[in-house]
Structure formats: C-alpha cells, structure tokens
Amino acid sequence: MKKKRLEIFLEGLEKFSHPKAYLEQYSTPANIAAELLVYAKLKGDLSGSVCDLGCGTGIFAIGAKILGAEKVYAIDVDENALEIARRNADKYDCGIDFIRMDIADIDKNDLQVDTVLMNPPFKSHKDIKFLNKSLELADVVYSMHNGVTEEFINNYVVDICNGFEMRKIRFPIKRTFEFHRKNVKEIDVNIYRFQR
User: Fold this and answer.
1) DSSP string for 86-136
2) Burial of 178 per CB tally in 10 Å (0-12, 13-18, 19+)
3) Angstrom distances, CA of residue 94 to CA of 3, 89, 141, 158
4) pTM summary value
5) Could you report the per-residue pLDDT of 2-11, keeping only the tens digit for each?
6) Integer-rounded Cα radius of gyration of the chain
7) Are the CB atoms for 72 and 52 separated by under 8 Å?
8) Alpha-carbon span 173 to 170, nearest angstrom
9) Which of 11, 64, 85, 177 would be 58's cystine partner, CB 3.0–4.6 Å?
C-alpha cells in the first residue's frame, strides 16, 4: 500500500472524544503515523508480531495490521481510548488483541513481539519508561521523542541498544486542552528505530 493511501485510511479513524491531559492524549496525525509505519514496513519490521504500546485510539496498531503484520497487540491504560481503538479496528476489520494495562505491569515473559510501535508521553521522562519497557518486549522499537531531548536520548540508548536510526519531523499539536494558547503549535519530534 502506498503511503498516501495509508494516510487516507488513517485519517478516517475516530479521534479522542474527551482526551485526558494527564495521559498526554494527543492524536498522532495520520501523515506522521503513515511516515513511521511505511518506514517500519520498508525495513521489514511489520511482517511478524507487533505491539502498539500506549495505543490511544489505535492508529499504529491498525496501520500495522493494514500493512500486513501477522499478530498485533494494542495496549493502553485508558479504557475510553481502547473503546475508540476497538471501533476503529472494527471499521477496517482489523483483528487486533486489545489489552488494558499500565506498561509497568507488563511482564516480558507474557508478551514478546518482534516490533513495538509507540508515540509515548513526553513529560517527566515517561518516554524513557516506555522505551525501557518496549526494549524488554521486542528486538526492534519505533518511537517518537521530543526533539529537545535528542542529545539525552542518543546518549541514553548507547548502552542499551545495538544501534539506532533517527528521522526529524515537525509534529503539529492542535488545541486540545484549556491551557493551550494556540490553535496549532508545531514541535520538533524525532522518529527513532532502535535495535536491541
């Protein structure tokens, strides 16, 4: 499937109805999700088992299934997000295993996958908690991290990964919460491919 066609599919997914600020529930734009997913597909990382960690409305899980992933898990702590993700998966007849669980409670002996896809929360180094957990679960991890943490992330992963690749993007955050002052604010985000 071409990137633009995938983007159109993903654009049709239902977004958060009542996003929660403390969970940093921002919808990943379809074009950015398609960028990450096609990148993973071209690297051969979507053919086996995949986990969308902190799946929100399920955009990565659904995209991975559309692109041919054999088995897909979607994990989130928020039941409301999972309800939306289930409806989204049903819309495209995607067979996905949805799991409500905090990432801290995931036992690596119970869930091992080939690839993890995620857009983790950035605040308070939550993205590092997600990264550590994802590297317990998979040999390959695709993750987004705030561009201002680039040096920290690059230095952090030196000791825990065999290597990584990075692409820089601009991520538009639409006005979602009362504390947002602009209709759209773009931030620098890095898409990483980590190899355990």
Assistant:
1) HHHHHHTT---EEEE--GGG--TTT---SEEEE----GGGHHHHHHHHHHH
2) exposed
3) 18, 5, 22, 36
4) 0.92
5) 899 999 999 9
6) 15
7) yes
8) 10
9) 85
